[in-house]
Design goal:
By secondary structure, this protein is mostly helical. The protein contains three helices and no strands. It starts with 10 loop residues before the first helix and ends in a 23-residue tail after the last helix.
């Protein structure tokens, strides 16, 4: 396994990190805006419209009571009976009151239906927002640390320059030759025979005198 890695450039990682930051900025803004819009629609149905039609129901109820009171007083005061326009006014107030009741019923139903249908989507949006703000933030941090590590690795000066293969072979050959020559000289000196020592032959025994002849 190689001890060093050849890193040509970190520009692609840097560009990817910049594009990821741009995407995350826009995606988080869109997700947050959608969540705010859902909450605004829910509040519009539950608070604004419901309160409006509840107030409108109360006001139209009062108008109907006033129209009926006016019709009753006119019927008592007039010998001919109540005027037709008062009767028409009562009928108009009754129709307006029925409309307010119907509107209020629809608003309450729409509020419940909107909450029931939007709640699963809101949860998914919240999960996506968590991924964008937590998981993707960790990814950006990882890319930043990787870029710093790669920049430090590429800018570090090696402690010793690598030896070329040819020079290494020449040096090895030269050292081997020197070692071989020194070894040969030592071996020759070791096996060279010492000076030949002169060994004298032992003196032959002296001749014994022959016995005298009888």
């Amino acid at each position: 396994m190689a001890d060093r890695v050849h890193v040509r450039s970190t520009d692609d990682i840097d560009r990817f990190r910049a594009q990821l930051l741009t995407f995350l900025s826009g995606a988080r803004a869109a997700v947050e805006e959608s969540a705010v819009e859902v909450a605004r629609q829910q509040a519009w149905l539950d608070l604004d419209r419901r309160k409006y039609w509840e107030g409108e129901l109360w006001r139209r109820q009062r108008r109907l009571e006033e129209a009926k009171q006016a019709l009753f007083q006119e019927s008592i005061a007039s010998q001919r009976g109540p005027a037709s326009f008062l009767q028409m006014q009562v009928h108009r107030c009754e129709r307006a009151l029925d409309e307010a009741k119907e509107k209020l019923q629809h608003i309450r139903g729409w509020g419940r239906a909107f909450e029931h249908r939007s709640l699963p989507m809101v949860r998914q949006v919240e999960q996506l927002h968590t991924v964008l703000t937590v998981d993707m933030a960790r990814a950006v941090q990882f890319l930043t640390q990787s870029l710093a590590a790669l920049d430090a690795y590429t800018s570090r000066t090696p402690s010793s320059s690598p030896i070329k293969s040819g020079e290494e072979n020449d040096g090895t050959t030269r050292l081997s030759a020197e070692h071989a020559s020194s070894t040969s000289g030592t071996e020759l000196a070791a096996v060279e025979p010492p000076e030949a020592a002169t060994h004298s032959e032992p003196n032959p025994p002296e001749a014994q005198p022959s016995p005298p002849a009888l």
